[in-house]
Structures are given as structure tokens and as C-alpha cells.
Amino acid sequence: MRHYGEEIDVQTGKISSETKTDTSKIPAVGTVEKEENEKKKVADLQLTSYKAGKKTLSGKTVKNAKVTVKIASKTYTTKADAKGKFSVALKKKLAHKDKIKITVKKSGYQTLKKTFTVK
Fold first, then answer.
1. Which residue, 1, 6, 35, 60, has most beta carbons within 10 Å?
2. Dihedral (Cα; 58, 63, 65, 69), 10-degree rounding
3. Would you give the DSSP letter of residue 112?
4. In the chain, what are the domain boundaries?
5. Is pLDDT of 7 > 80?
6. Is the full-model pTM beyond 0.85?
7. Interacting residues of 49 by C-beta distance below 8 A, sequence separation 6+
8. Which SS3 state, helix, strand or coil, does residue 105 take?
């Protein structure tokens, strides 16, 4: 801790009694950077349509969230609507046992990643 405004008597070496403490470098009690775990959790992510042979994928999550869908090496991005519904048109049909990796991102929320397997 640094002191400022001190007056020292050169002859006696004593510091005056009007010493002030510099508190600008001391963090306020209870202040902490906002961390990932303080963000809201994405309540749920559901895929409502992802059957083998289909070329569309539909689901529901947090409203207005960015939804990224990855199947094999293909990545698709969309945005959930005001009710949280989303749909993605796929370039090729879903195959039995395809892995669908979905990431949901929204400001103020934790990122949610979930994997589904086509039945």
C-alpha cells in the first residue's frame, strides 16, 4: 500500500500525522469479473425431426439463438425464431447412425453443445 501526502520532518525523521492512504489499487470487496458460470443456461435443445432419409432438420431451443449444425464435414448455421424454433435444409439426406452435433450460442447464455444420432 502506498502513502501519499506525507510530510517528513528532515531533522527528526518523523512522518506527519496527516498521512493519507492511496486506495486506488485496492479492489472493492465483492467485485469479480463476470464468469461463464454466471451466465444463464440454455434450458433445452430438442430435435423434433431428424429421421434417416430426410433432408431437413428441425428443433427448438432458446429464442433468437444462433444454431450451428455439423454433420460429418458439413456445417450449417441458422437462427432460432422468436419462439425458439429452427430448421435447416441439408445438402444430402440423413443416413442411419449419422452424428449430428449442434451448438447453441446466445449473448448472456452459456454455450450449449449436444450430439444426436440419427435412428
1. 60
2. -10
3. E
4. 36-117
5. no
6. no
7. 56, 57, 58, 59
8. strand
Rounded to 10 degrees, the C-alpha dihedral 51/53/59/65 comes to: 140
DSSP secondary structure string, 6-68?
Answer: --B-TTT-PBPS--EE--TTSPPTT-----GGGSBPP---EEEE--TT-SEEEEE-STT-EEE
Where does 36-117 sit in CATH, by number? 2.60.40.10
- What's the whole-number average pLDDT of the chain? 82
**Rounded-to-integer distance, Cα 100 and Cα 85, Å:** 17
* Partners of 3 in beta bridges: 21
Q: Is the per-residue pLDDT at 31 higher than 50? A: no
